[in-house]
Amino acid sequence: MKNMIMNLELKKHPYLSAFIIWLYLFFAFGYFETDSVVTISYIVPMIISGIIVYLYSLKKEKIRKIPEKNRKAPLYALGAVVVSIAMIYTFAHVPTDDFLTSRNSFVPLVFLSAGLAAYCIFLSVKKKWSVNRILFCIFILSCIVHLFYILTAKFFVSQWDMGSLNSGGHGHLGYIEYLFNNFLPLQSDPREKWQYYHPPLHHFTTAMVLKLQSLFGGQIRTTIYNVQFITMLYAMISSVSVYEICRELKLRRLSLILAFSITALSPAFIYVGGYVNNDMMATMFTLLCISCTIKWYNAQRMGTILKTALFFGLGMLTKMSAALIAFPIAVVFLYALIKKLREKDMKSFRGLFGQMCAFVGVAAPMSLYWSLRNLLRFGIPIGYIPESTIEEQFIPESVPRRLFDFFSISQYSNPYMNYKGENGFNEYNPIIALIKTSAADQAAAKDTVGYLPGLAMFWLTVVIASAAFIMMIYILIRKNTLPFVLKLFFSVMYVVYIYSYISFCIKYPYTCTEHIRYTMPLIVEGALFIGLGVKELKKQKKLYSKIIIRCVTIAAAAFCICSVYTIIKIGSVLTIQWMTG
Is residue 362 predicted with pLDDT exceeding 90? Predict the structure, then answer.
């Protein structure tokens, strides 16, 4: 048992480690058929997890340790103590009415945060910090914050197209309930029910998890609250995928930590990871495709390209927008084929061509199934999106103004998205809306976080996004930073997602279309280029390079801290609201 636990680490078994951590969170803090749970229900899992963490910490890692001169054990220990005191202070000042005898989200926040702080103190005192353990702590912190958010916001606060849970209900909840009861997608025209036009994988997976719970006596009215635990798992796997991509790009030490932390602690990943809809699952499969595509180019094996095909097909069975990643993937495949032709290596060319045929053989049936089914049975056009007629979200501004007006002061007076005519207009600039929705979710943050923290989160997001864009240009135009094919891959990916997003916003001029959930992979791409830029600047060993690296590091740290504060503030306010009525 000890050896098994000690071998579960982020570096060797990242996806398995993430899944085991999720299982613990799900069974310890999920909603089942129990309306009231005493505090001991949380303390026992905490003791077990403490033992696991202790055994994990005993393992001697084979990765290179941080040099003695870079160890700042007192600083780390002080930070952990401050976090612990802050959590205990928050815990002590929550209204006490039925607090310890009710299922309350502050309990897991306090105990899990204290456990993480204790682990950090242990590593500092024993001088066992390593890059991999820093990443592990960042990952656990993101899980704690995400757990706190979904336990407090539930799915009443901030959702898109959620619908209702009743017999024959509409929206994503209705879709899940229909599959829960019938196992098969709607056998009539999906356009008859709102949101049923989506491919069924996310909704079916969720329904089957709920069905499994029902076998043990759970009722769907209770277990439905665990839907967000499932999308949380997608977000955790997405973070691990980013870690895998970073390793393939040979990011190390500071560059790896920056790229991973910006993604794992991004508020957008926590918000979208709490949605009932299929956005997070589609993002997860897209990131898995990116990881496998880069792995395939580095070592062109049949198994890797089949994994890419599988993840692409599953993404298409989740949401049709997953098709966007096909364009950069195709660029890598074509480049590899053309390269073999130019080298006149026909044997390798035939081998690669065979692999790509296998890719099509796996991906095509899965990708086309839902569209062809609906086209042949109900005459629904491929790529069908229902027309929206939400008058309160309509954007009347002209296309040129929407695309090129970046300087109107009114757009920056509100750090949150102007929605339903707030401040006299609906948010109309797609890029500004993209930044605002990635910094703070409108419904969750506006009435809970406040103006100044929201303003700080917005401008820190602007700084990180600007740094990412500048670093991207720097890496793309500079020689010997990335293989040409990967430069091409990321360039095509960026253009495709930006073009698709802006086209979508123009074709459907409503505020609901101006949201980061449609371009989540761009957050990862930006984080990767920040890591790549820092890696390249460190090679130069010049004064201006050191200054830029330090500024980017400070900005990224401030971004992550502000993000964690924002989510905890949302959860704290919502918890007090639930408790005080």
Answer: yes
